[in-house]
Amino acid sequence: MSAKTSIKNAFWELLRELPLDQITVIMLCERASVNRQTFYYYYQNIVDLLKDVLFEEIYDEVSKGRAFDTWKHGFLTTTCFIKNNNFVFQNIHHSHYWDEVNDFFTETSNILLKGVIDECIELTGIRISKEDEDFMIHYYRVLFNSIMTEWVKDGMQLNPEALLSKVEKLVDGTVCSALERFAIK
Question: What is the CATH number of domain 1-43?
Answer without folding.
Answer: 1.10.10
